[in-house]
Amino acid sequence: MARILNIISSPRGEQSNSIKLANAVIDRLREKEPASFVKVKDLTRNPFPHLEEVHLNAFLHQLRNTQMRIGQLYNIPIRRFRK
């Protein structure tokens, strides 16, 4: 029996790639060892006000816009800066 600790730290919830990846890894581990125990520690239950999803999305949106402007300024293909 495996003991798995899943620490959730992304305030992006269902949009978080790290949460999706962790869930996929845990699913694979549980396929191999069905009796595995999973302990979930969700650090986002009592979020810090400045780290909520809405703030991170606004920051990332601004960052992508800045990257696109830099790409245009230096004639770097914009597609390099997209998701």
UniProtKB/TrEMBL annotation:
It holds the Pfam family Flavodoxin_2. Residues 3-62 form the Flavodoxin-like fold domain. InterPro entries: Flavodoxin_fold, Flavoprotein-like_sf. It comes from the Bacteria. This is NAD(P)H-dependent oxidoreductase.
